[in-house]
Amino acid sequence: MDTAADDDDGDDRDDSGGLRKIIHVDMDAFFASVEQRDDPSLRGKPVAVGGSSGRGVVSAASYEARKFGVRSAMPSVTAKRLCPDLIFCKHRFDVYRAVSQQIRAIFRDYTPHVEPLSLDEAYLDVTADLKGIGSGTLIAEDVRRRIRADTGLTASAGVSYNKFLAKIASDQNKPDGICVIRPGEGAAFVAGLPVRRFHGVGPKSAEKMAKLGITTGADLAGKDIAFLRQHFGSFAEYLFRASRGIDLRPVRANRIRKSVGGERTFAEDISSGAALRNTLEDIIDIVWDSIERAEARGRTVTLKMKYTDFQNTSRSRSVAQAVSDKDTFSAIARSLLDEALPLPLPIRLMGLTLSNLEKERDEQLPSDEAQLSLL
User: Fold this and answer.
1) N or C end: fewer C-beta atoms under 10 angstroms in the chain?
2) Which residue from 127, 101, 118, 125 is spatially nearest to 26, judged by alpha carbons?
3) How far is C-alpha 137 from the chain's CA centre?
4) What's the pLDDT at 13?
5) Annotated active-site positions, please?
């Protein structure tokens, strides 16, 4: 799904009128790196976390595996074909959560303004840091040093004056790197980026932009707001600001995620019960991984489908107790599909969402930046 980051009131300045200092920390190949840390025989080898069966999906891939083109959300059979020596490890979410809590404790030594996005990434507003360091760059370097010392893992960081730029920067020098975009540099930095690097711009949006002659941030900045609204609707405001290096969102430590989910658009329309059920199993695997990453628990499961005539249909079911395991989530999803069969028309898209979320632990769930794309 191509979705924009949330729009919030405010600007790039803090309450005192000065520019914010924002850090985005992103762990490097988190799940796979934890497996390599805990099993020395895996170090330096291509590793994937996920199921290795015919219907399995890659949740995370080590950098050694990525060199072969292995990526998260890729079918395991495809990953194995790309990298015959790929080693699969089963999920250990309890371990990943424990390490994530270690890392978040480090963050909170520097600021109470921590907005986790998932187990392996978070925004930090260090405009007024607790240690009085005063430099976002120095704080980011110290955070990375402590993560390595305390967990044996590496993290990359982006430092800038808003969330959009900090997130882009954290990906710039991966793995184990840092990138700083200083005040006054944002628009020029963004101008040279391909639009696919913009958070929220998925394959479908990028394809649409290419047809309109928009391939870079500079191309996007060259379009006025009326043009963007005509072609991208409510997404236009975000694109207009992002192409100029502007982001209006504050870091929100207690932001509650509204839903977790994902959808898949098919290369060919499908209608048979067997094909639909097989596709649903793939989506269940990937979306449940996303739910686990977000530490989310919710009471409503929704199945979405789009017919060949582009009409959407959805079915939802709410339960009394929060869905806390994959078996329950899968059973509800399968039941929703069974209730919809036979379909009146073939479908071109299917998606699953878990909503009506609640806290699983003492802290709030991370913010709802965008749903997982299964394209």
Assistant:
1) C
2) 118
3) 24
4) 52
5) 121
